[in-house]
């Protein structure tokens, strides 16, 4: 009789330990799921600001073409939508315009005015969008380093590298557009 009680007690303890371990894994997986979702949402902002950068450079190179302006306005709408749909905003302290979605969007709107009025340079366009995109990509990288679950971590790290590559290609595309439009690329 005592053997049965001891066996049952051990079985209950082992089961409790297994349930506790599984619940911890479930919490980790939920956290990773949330990080992946936020990464995809941030990628929408990144993608739309990359398009906006390229079209802003193109708009400047065409001396304010109406056709390019129409495409640029569509890019503005996409960026605004992507920013407003992000559920959790990163908690940045620097630069100041990253403190909230509203301050970030206000900064973009002020810069758009300079593009629309063509009172900016190609260098300012590239730097403005690229600096902010670098911050978004670095935030993505920091969040990925938190999720250290096996294969998923490797895939998320690869995704981060893809975002860095995409950003660099976007800069090249914007500069290439200006160059092939016959514009001079000067950064002096």
Automatic annotation (TrEMBL):
Span of the signal peptide: 1-21
Signal in keyword set: yes
Keywords: Signal
Residue span(s) of domain Nitrate/nitrite sensing protein: 45-178
InterPro entries in UniProt: Nitrate/nitrite_sensing (IPR013587)
Protein name according to UniProt: Nitrate/nitrite sensing protein domain-containing protein
Organism ancestry: Eukaryota, Metazoa, Spiralia, Lophotrochozoa, Mollusca
